[in-house]
Amino acid sequence: MFLESESYGPQAMNVIACEGSERIERPETNKQWLLQIVRAGFRQLPLNQEMMNTAKDRLKSRYHKDFVIDEDSQCLLQGWKGRNIFVLSFWRPDC
């Protein structure tokens, strides 16, 4: 729970509740990041489906109903009430 209160909480608050000058960070969309990483010479690796299933099961049993985990474009999306807060993906250099 330390991670949620010290890292996820403040970052989620920034994305969900802050607008205009109150916003601390202005994160780019995951689609923008994917394009930049590909242009930098990396290749995306698929998500491990066992990991996805475990994450979804833990979410359902331990967290608020409005917190969601989903998958899109080989990325794990963590969100709150339909807004993405964190995106996790795996990459390797495309040699």
Automatic annotation (TrEMBL):
Where does the source fall among the domains of life? Answer: Eukaryota
The alphabetized UniProt keywords are: Nucleus, Transcription, Transcription regulation
Q: InterPro entries this protein is in?
A: TF_GRAS
Return the annotated region ranges for SAW. Answer: 17-92
> What does UniProt give as GO cellular component?
nucleus
One Pfam family named in its UniProt record = GRAS
Transcription listed as a keyword: yes
Asked whether the keyword Transcription regulation is assigned, the reply is yes
Where is the protein localized? Nucleus
Q: Which family does it belong to?
A: Belongs to the GRAS family.
Against PANTHER family, the record matches this protein to: OSJNBA0084A10.13 PROTEIN-RELATED
Q: What is this protein called?
A: Scarecrow-like protein 9
Q: Which organism is it from?
A: Quercus suber
Protein's gene: SCL9_0
